[in-house]
């Protein structure tokens, strides 16, 4: 074993247990010896201590289970982690107590390698598999698994009924085989007898778990060769001559349809076939070149499964060569993932977990990191761990700031991985505005429905999640309330309940809600026709000049500053060692500022109503677009131009109507007494139209 590599990987696994690190560590441990030395076990105990205080994820669970299959020393701490591992990698319905008991995960009389074999059987067990039970020499067909831990096994051929076999027996000894016409040759003794070599070959291809030669011999004795006497059977079993048809040598790359390639790949996988040759890679490339686009769309799931299963037997260069024709055909690889309908990406929520991981690895091998980040904004939650394992937090954040769009699945993934990824930048994306926009999407495909429901539940009921939203809003309670007012996916009762919970967390928000914002939120949506209209208390009026200036600033941020900052981040990252990289820190700070400013501008511009000052009619009332004269008690006179929310300029006496003084004088009539901020009293002495020069300046 490479001790230096082991030490480095162990440290990485302790602090950041990602999938790639754990796979490399497991590969190193596989070379540690038989049994794994006590000194290595002692060092692994440090890893168990680090992991023992939190729930394990899929990668950690797979590592522990993979380790159980090695000559590992047993112990109570490791057993406890194995129990957590099983729960991490199996769906909830397979984590019930009867099933855990049948696995023997907590039973120290069940050896670790026996436990690993039982788990392997459980993971492949499903209705319709062909089953052989050595202890009873019985063939059958797997049925359903009941709630008390028994498997219904139907007798082969339909005679003899069915029996409930304890799951403990099934997981301990059963041979599980994929059904198919070839299986009849193994079982039916009334047909012509196939050779022992063909029997072994079919078993090897069809078995979902390893089968010893002794067990295969017992299967033949109780199957196709059951009519032979002992002497004849021994001669048959030890003979290498073929008495029946030989196995096919057709390769998967020679398949003429997706279904045929799928079947041939399955056969090769059972035989543990090696890597693809250059000739085989070229064969796959020819097939994918000739594949019709409508076939690729119609059979997208099967195509994705095949692509995923090419990964373990291909180099990165072979993958690029073989799959290049699919880049314009495969619906799960659109040219711009963020620009297509979600239904095009639904395959990412339909494949089994192992194939999803492999498909993500293939995607990472042939596409740049930015493409994977685009996929992350669109794919269902089920595949996000696999996709994001190959994408940095910085790239995900950069793309979101640029696109300003994601699904509820991506936001939920950030929340679920907030401790593992430990990214303050990604957590900034968990704000009430993004959550509200994500939950406002409707008519989503089925694969995205689960995350929508879970994110909605977090918003309404989870205090930690609500605290995060308030923290992300800082002290901008007006923005927070405006987002809630636009949250029409919540009923009035749900909004009221949510406001009560949020008010308990934030005194600032509570005061704002009690001052009238709460009532506006509760009334939102009543009689509303235009559900796409931006939410807010009322429009912000401003001049044409200021409106154009804000539009120009937003355009520069999106098209100039953010791309420049992205390049600066790439250059800074290339310098390495982020702990002492001032350029990287400065670029990140700049990125965060641009993100915040873009959000502010987009929010404000959605509520701005630009005014043409020349069309403003001025009489004796102070309105936006008028000049006002204030006369104080001590005789002092001040003249202001009362203008829009973004037109303020104190040096020129341009008074924005949203300021405290602007609000004090707005809509007051000539002769009215006014108390201005600071307690001074004055009279609105005169109201006049703006000068021609100021109108010309603002109406551009």
Automatic annotation (TrEMBL):
Membrane-spanning residues: none
GO MF annotation, one: RNA polymerase binding
InterPro entries: GreA/GreB_C_sf, Tscrpt_elong_fac_GreA/B_C, Tscrpt_elong_fac_GreA/B_fam, Tscrpt_elong_fac_GreA/B_N, Tscrpt_elong_fac_GreA/B_N_sf
Keyword Transcription in annotation: yes
Residues in Transcription elongation factor GreA/GreB C-terminal domain copies: 619-678
Protein name (record): Transcription elongation factor GreA
An annotated GO BP: DNA-templated transcription elongation
Domain of life: Bacteria
Keywords, alphabetical: DNA-binding, Transcription, Transcription regulation
Family per similarity comment: Belongs to the GreA/GreB family.
Statement: the UniProt record of this protein carries the keyword Signal: no
Pfam families the UniProt entry points to: GreA_GreB, GreA_GreB_N
Annotated Transcription elongation factor GreA/GreB N-terminal domain residues: 541-609
């Amino acid at each position: 074993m490479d001790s230096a590599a082991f030490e480095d990987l162990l440290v990485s696994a302790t602090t950041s247990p990602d999938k790639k690190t754990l796979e490399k560590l497991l590969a190193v441990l596989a070379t540690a010896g038989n049994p794994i030395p006590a000194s290595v076990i002692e060092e692994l105990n440090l890893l168990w201590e680090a992991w023992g205080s939190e729930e394990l994820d899929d990668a950690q669970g797979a590592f522990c289970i993979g380790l159980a299959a090695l000559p590992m020393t047993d112990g109570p701490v490791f057993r406890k982690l194995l129990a957590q591992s099983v729960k991490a990698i199996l769906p909830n319905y397979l984590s019930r107590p009867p099933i855990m008991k049948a696995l023997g995960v907590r039973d120290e009389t069940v050896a670790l390698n026996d436990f690993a074999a039982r788990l392997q059987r459980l993971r492949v067990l499903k209705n319709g598999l062909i089953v052989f039970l050595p202890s009873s020499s019985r063939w059958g067909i797997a049925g359903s698994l009941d709630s008390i831990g028994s498997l219904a096994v139907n007798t082969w051929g339909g005679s003899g009924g069915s029996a409930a076999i304890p799951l403990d027996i099934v997981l301990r000894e059963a041979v599980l085989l994929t059904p198919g016409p070839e299986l009849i040759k193994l079982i039916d003794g009334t047909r012509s007898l196939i050779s022992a070599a063909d029997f072994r070959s079919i078993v090897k291809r069809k078995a979902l778990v390893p089968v010893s030669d002794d067990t295969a011999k017992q299967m033949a004795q109780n199957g196709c060769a059951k009519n032979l006497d002992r002497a004849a059977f021994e001669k048959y079993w030890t003979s290498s001559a073929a008495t029946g048809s030989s196995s096919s040598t057709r390769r998967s790359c020679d398949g003429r349809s997706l279904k045929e390639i799928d079947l041939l790949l399955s056969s090769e996988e059972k035989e543990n076939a090696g890597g693809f040759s250059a000739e085989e890679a070229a064969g796959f490339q020819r097939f994918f070149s000739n594949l019709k686009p409508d076939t690729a769309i119609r059979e997208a799931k099967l195509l994705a499964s095949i692509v995923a299963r090419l990964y373990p037997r291909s180099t990165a260069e072979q993958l690029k060569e073989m799959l290049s024709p699919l880049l314009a055909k495969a619906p799960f690889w659109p040219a711009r993932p963020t620009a297509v309908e979600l239904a095009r990406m639904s395959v990412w929520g339909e494949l089994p977990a192992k194939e999803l991981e492999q498909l993500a690895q293939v995607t990472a091998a042939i596409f740049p990191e930015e493409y994977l980040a685009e996929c992350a904004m669109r794919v269902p939650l089920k595949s996000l761990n696999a996709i994001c394992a190959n994408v940095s937090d910085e790239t995900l954040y950069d793309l979101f700031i640029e696109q300003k769009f994601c699904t509820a699945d991506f936001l939920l993934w950030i929340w679920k991985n907030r401790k593992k990824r430990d990214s303050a930048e990604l957590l900034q994306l968990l704000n009430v505005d993004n959550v509200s926009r994500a939950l406002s999407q409707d008519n989503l495909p089925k694969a995205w429905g689960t995350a929508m429901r879970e994110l909605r539940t977090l918003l309404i009921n989870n205090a930690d999640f609500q605290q995060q939203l308030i923290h992300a809003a800082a002290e901008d309670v007006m923005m927070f309330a405006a987002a809630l007012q636009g949250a029409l996916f919540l009923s009035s009762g749900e909004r009221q309940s949510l406001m009560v919970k949020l008010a308990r967390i934030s005194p600032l928000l509570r005061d704002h809600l009690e001052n009238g914002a709460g009532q506006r939120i509760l009334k939102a949506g009543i009689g509303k026709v235009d559900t796409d209209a931006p939410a807010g208390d009322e429009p912000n009026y401003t001049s044409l000049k200021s409106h154009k200036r804000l539009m120009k600033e937003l355009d520069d941020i999106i098209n100039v500053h953010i791309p420049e900052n992205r390049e600066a981040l790439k250059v800074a990252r290339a310098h390495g060692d982020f702990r002492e990289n001032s350029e990287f820190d400065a670029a990140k700070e700049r990125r965060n500022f641009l993100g915040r400013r873009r959000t502010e501008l987009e929010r404000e511009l959605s509520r701005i109503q630009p005014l043409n000052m020349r069309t403003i009619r001025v009489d004796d009332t102070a309105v936006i677009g008028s000049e006002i004269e204030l006369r104080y008690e001590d005789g002092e006179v001040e003249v202001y131009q009362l203008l829009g929310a973004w037109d303020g300029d104190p040096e020129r006496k341009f008074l924005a109507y949203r300021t405290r003084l602007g609000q004090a004088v707005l809509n007051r009539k000539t002769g009215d007494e006014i108390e201005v901020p600071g307690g001074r009293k004055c009279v609105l002495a005169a109201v006049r139209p703006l000068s021609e020069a100021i109108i010309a300046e603002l109406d551009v």
